[in-house]
Amino acid sequence: VKLDKKHPAYVLGYMVVISALFTAGIVAVQIATADRVERNERMRKYRAIVTLFAPSWKLKGGALPDDRVVELFRQRIVEGELASPDPRGGRATIKVYRAFESEEKRKLTGAAFPVRGNGFWAPIEGYFAVTPDGKEALGVVFVEQRETPGLGGRITEKAFTNRFRPEWRKEKGKEPLEVTLPDQGQKIIYIGRGEPTGAKDPRHGRSVDAITGATQTSMAVERLLNQDIRRFQGAVDEGLRRVE
Amino acid sequence: MTPPQAQTKGTQALFTQLWEENPIFRQVLGICSALAVTNLMFNTLLMCLGLIWATTMSSVTVSLLREYTPPRVRMMVQVLIIAVYVIMVDIAMRAYYPDIHRVIGPYVGLIITNCIVMGRLEVFASKNPVGAAFWDGLGAGIGYSFVLLFVAFIRESMGFGSLFGFELPALERWWHSWTIMVMPAGAFFVLAIAIWIARSYTLRREAKAEQKAGGK
Q1: What letter does residue B176 receive in the DSSP assignment?
Q2: Percent of chain A with pLDDT over 90
């Protein structure tokens, strides 16, 4: 039988068959990789949070194999939520990850919470960790960013994130980074705003060096950290202390 | 007279695409991704593998279906076929290379609208048997890839001082990284210079061949 390729019924039937066939192919690939994609997303979060607390646990976060990261997360991290009193944020709750010294969960190492905001090119996402009393920074890690590679993109590198860590700051002769709520009109932390001139300077104990050549990204990071740390501090009273 | 494209068969199609009809040098197609993904060699390599897969597989599929595809809807079918193969690459990359997928993900999706793929399907695969379409698709993919890898080689080594993420030896003694090579502007310069060199070489060769033919 000679098929008339111009007949509308043939064209319609052909399109239906072709679409169904190829869509089935995509669905098959999607199903085959779904578990792995989900696992990747989970691992990304686990690794980010374990990396934040690893130095306090005397471990090397970057070098840990996946299994160990999952084990540490399950044993020492407790996921929870804090009610956020900030109505402008539009978020009623803040996710908080409480980290403990050991599996017994007796002594708190600190707490981490997500930070998010607009970068120079695209949104930046990460986690920020504070000491159990919520007064000092323990570290920061960025998991999502599209900043300029080699410039702003370096916010994910240790050379930048170490500047928030107490042990690195101590080594460099700086005070730990304070993250308590400041006086009216001041920032919680300052990134690349020059060295503080003395103990009365609002930047004293709150200053972090920026990345050279990435002023816009540094300013964006300062803005998003200030916003989300402030929100966390507003919500922290009820949550963290109750666990302690 | 039959157009030269239709006469090209088998592996000859591969070599034509590699140099004489190179998608980037000669046809100046697929420039968007060439500029966007070439600051690191590994990212570029993954992008190139994705494009080679998309051009080859869609060429083969379009060629296989050429007798059955109604001419009126052939372009819709071609876009559907390209989209399917590209989405497969996208899903596989998200599953196995999530970090790189976050960086080049948007450009992988854009392979669907990459003129190289559509161009080869419309001009060659829809008119030629499967074998020739396979080599043509493969050639277009490889032709695109070697130019991109060349651009990435220059950009990563000059911009980051590394190759495939490995730092070049004793770099601090003789090199200060050029930030412009990391930025999109760097790609414009490198690609333009590469096209310039390749085209002047080809033009000179063609002029010589013509002179020889005229002298006879």
Answers
A1: -
A2: 52
